[in-house]
Amino acid sequence: MLKIFRMAGMLLLLLCFSTPSGFALLSSPHQSIDVCQVFGSVYIEDDPQYADFLVYEEDSEAFADILVFEVDDRLWANKPGLWHFTETKGFQDFSIYFVESRGKADFSIYFINSEFFAGCNQ
């Protein structure tokens, strides 16, 4: 009898997390977003499961999805590619975790020295 209740509970749980097409909503914990619109205050996470995005830092700007310029004040991080790094969790617009493999990243970045070229690399 207990086995029947467990199976019924599991079926109910699957129904709660399914879409009309029947696929489960339990997907990647990381958000999907247009990387060309990623800007603002950034916090670097120590644990990938708490990060909004997994990011790979490219060696060359030619292969990066977005060119990032680090600004000193969060008020100036108001356009794509302009990031202000904060050490205080809770004051960020989004958080990232740097991965060592491009295949595990949500997107890749390259740090540049000029604010003029910051943004989407298309």
What does this structure look like?
There is one protein chain. By secondary structure, the chain is α/β, with parallel strands linked by helices. 12% of the residues lie in helices and 25% in strands. The chain has one helix spanning 2-16, and strands at residues 40-44, 53-57, 66-70, 82-85, 94-98, 107-111, 119-120. The radius of gyration is 19 Å and the shape is globular.
Concise synopsis of the structure shown:
The chain is α/β, with parallel strands linked by helices and 122 residues long. It contains one helix and seven strands; from the N terminus they run αβββββββ.
Low-confidence stretches: 11-28
Q: Could you tell me how far the N terminus lies from the C terminus, measured between alpha carbons in angstroms? A: 60 Å
Number of strands: 7
Question: What is the approximate shape?
Answer: globular
Largest sheet: 6 strands, parallel, barrel
Please indicate the count of domains.
Answer: 1
Helix content: 10-25%
Order of helices and strands: HEEEEEEE
Radius of gyration, in Å, reads: 19 Å
Task: Report mean pLDDT, rounded to a whole number.
Answer: 82
What percent of residues are in strands? 25-35%
The main sheet orders its strands as 1-4-3-6-2-5
Instruction: State the helix count.
Output: 1
